[in-house]
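Why do we care about 3D structure at all? Because function follows from shape, and shape follows, mostly, from sequence. That is the central idea of this module. The next example makes it concrete: a single protein chain, its amino acid sequence, and then its structure expressed as tokens.
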Amino acid sequence: MNVDVVWRREDGVRLPASVWRAGDGWRMISSAMVGGGIGPAGWVLNAQVAGGYARLDPVEHLAELASEFGLAGPGVGMLTAAAVDRLVIRADEGVEVVATVGLRVPTWAAAPPGGVDLEFTPIRDEAKAGADGPRPGTINIVVSVPASLGDAALVNAVATVTEAKTQALLDAGYHCSGTATDAVCVAVRTGGPADPFGGPRSRWGARIARAVHAAVREGAVDYTAQLRRLSDG
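And the structure:
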């Protein structure tokens, strides 16, 4: 993946976004607000927003950003308050992964009912974090596979990504399965025979798992280091 980090000014704040201009010949499965589901897609946008993000039209916002960055046709769009300029890229035998990791509110997927989820509490004083301090956010993961996978294998690949993400967080010292707003996108090639398997012991699933684990673990370790710098400062 040739991923570019591009910048914009929004509400007086300079914010980055990562853009993968994949082009033709890709099919993607995603949980993102824009381009979610399974279908052809030619680009992936992961845009950072301010911690106190309050727009009620994120789909329209992503459409505006896609147009601003010259992205046309079907694609996948994600938003995050994590530091997109600190993205992590890892590869394993042809599989490539790009991850942005924000862990302000790490949580378990199965949480008790009726609780207040701090993930949705705005950050009111970002100045305390400083320009290079830890920011709130999600774990957004983009995976590219240089082969064709069937629909069932794509669904299985998403499960593999999620399992590897959780393993990486535990290995990095976080007692959680992720955050409440994580998103994923898996891109595969069109054409040719479709591999029916995407689990962690399949040919491509094993590579996905290793690359995701490496990227998320590095991102989580980096986030921890940011917290320590902020505490020491």
